[in-house]
Amino acid sequence: GLQEFQFEYPFVIQGIAGCELHSGKAIQSFLRAGFEGLDFVSIENHSCVPEPEGGSEAQWFCVFITQYQGILAIIDRLLSKTCPRYLLGVLDAGKAELHRQVKPEAWLSSGPTPGPGRLLLVCHVSGFYPKPVRVMWMRGEQEQPGTQQGNIILNADWTWYLRVTLDVAAGEAAGLSCRVKHSSLGDQDIILYWGHPMYIGLIFVAIIVPSLILLICLALWFWRRWSYQTVL
After folding, report:
1. Which of 58, 86, 207, 208 could, after both became Cys, cross-link 50 (CB 3.0–4.6 A)?
2. Which coarse location class applies to the principal site listed for this UniProt protein?
């Protein structure tokens, strides 16, 4: 076959095929082949078209390949149906990914002690998507200098995690807060105040739990007394 076209070994063949989506959702498919760095042939509308740079070899090749209509039919099906369907699927998936919004979760902790009389405040933000996020340690409405931001790390579910720290004197930690800004939150920023969860927990343990126990004991005492009087 190759001897008929007077191709000399070695030789280089290049090819490109695909489909493009134009304005108005018109899809144009293409297949072009090159030989020794020059345009050789292209497949258009179920037919082989020789390129001028291909010369007589390109013309003879198109005559040769036209004898095999089954091959041209397969190429045409791939270009006109399979490729556009795949392209539209990729575009739909991309649009869904671009519009994906996942709200972050945030919590506070303390890190290793930086030194005597100092605290390392840590603000964790996880599970957010897309990646851009802003996390700040604040006092009132003022962002605190010295805030250190770690690398944004990819979670197993393709959301993101970020750790932001602040080194402060132990006596200056009260009144600090961590503010999280993310597109999924709109104008409803997450604000966590340092120390508040601990105080709430202490109040719950010291007041609410004993009160509940006392109420249960009183209820049992009244119930037993009422039962005893009923028997008498």
Report:
1. 58
2. membrane
Per-residue pLDDT for 10 more than 90? no
SS3 27: strand
Which one has a higher pLDDT value, 182 or 67? Answer: 182
- Residues 76, 113, single domain; the answer is no
Q: Please, are residues 204 and 131 in contact by the beta-carbon 8 Å criterion?
A: no
Domain identity same for 92 and 109: no
Quickly count: other Cβ atoms within 10 Å of residue 17's Cβ.
15
Report the C-alpha gap between 40 and 30 in whole angstroms. Answer: 14
CA–CA separation, 38 and 16 (whole Å) = 13
Q: Tell whether 162 is covered by a domain.
A: yes
Which pLDDT band, with edges at 50, 70 and 90, does 72 fall under? confident
Closest to 161 (Cα-Cα) out of 194, 191, 122, 133: 133
How far from 191 is each of 104, 110, 137, CA to CA, in Å?
Answer: 12, 17, 10
